[in-house]
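Table 4 source record.
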Amino acid sequence: MKKNGILFLICFFILIFAPVPIFYLFREQIGYKNTENKVLSEFPELSSENFSTWPRRFEEWFSDILPFKTQFIELYRGFQLRSGLDFAQSDVIRGNDSHLFYRTTVENYKGISRFTDEELEKIRKNLEGLFGPLQAQGADCLLYIAPDKEQVYHSFMPSIIRRISTESRADQVVDYLTDRVNFPVLYPKTRLMELSLTQPVYYTTDTHWNNLGGWIAATQVRSAFTGEPETKELPQFHYYDSEGKDLAGMLGLSEQIPERNGVAIDHNDGINVWKPETVDHGKLQRFMSDAPVKKKMLLIGDSFSEYFMQSAIHDITEIHFVTYGELYRIDLVQESPDYVVIMLVERNLPFLVHGFY
């Protein structure tokens, strides 16, 4: 009996502790992946200054490096995928027809999240504070708001999520700024909704619009600056399939939920575009081309801007892209742009309340 008890304890401790050395010895063969689309925590150093927060930071680090975490996440999410269940306890909502949505934007989709009048006035003042000196130098300026995906693809949202209003915070901003500012404010929700009925303008497994959505933005910005009618004829493009993108990756299911709305624009205009100069992990980028219009654009934006620039660089010779919140890195006077565009996805509009620096 005693021998059996000892054997049981040995087996117990092997099961408890063996996964750790096995995992780290064969980590590459097992196939570790960061499935949560996040920056992994570093091991926290213990000091008298961080003594009170060290346990929490240690727990975050340990959670990130937990052996076989990736495999357990994939197993659990795979079960949810095959069973037709929603992806509970995640930031991803399972929509219809394989569409995935970002849970953090649901309150705005429902019409619950609202800007106060004070916040709207702060947005106006912050925009005018930035645009005013640039306009005095001769630059044309505008604000472009990219719709959250569910604003365009609302028919693919789960029916259990009810809306109390179809007016979003972006609608609020547009309504408030119209007739109060001397620059265009563009929010292409209607245009993208119409086009989405026949062509894909957002990815199925990502929050972003695809290159066709970015092309629509480029045509609207060009029209606003030049006064020419917006181009309604679509460019030549082709579809491509790939692994699932951001939202599928957050679930650890990039291979199990493929992306089918990839679009590549065929720019058959003879314009050469050079590989962008990139600084500090993409926080600063400079796009160059030999387009006939010798103009320079300062673009202040987020990840949606990447898809816009792919087409916009065919309209002008230079785009200097700055990630929102990184304006301190450049000299606006020295930049001397012809055009200034602030392009933010709808969920990032609260940034405008807090300012640019």
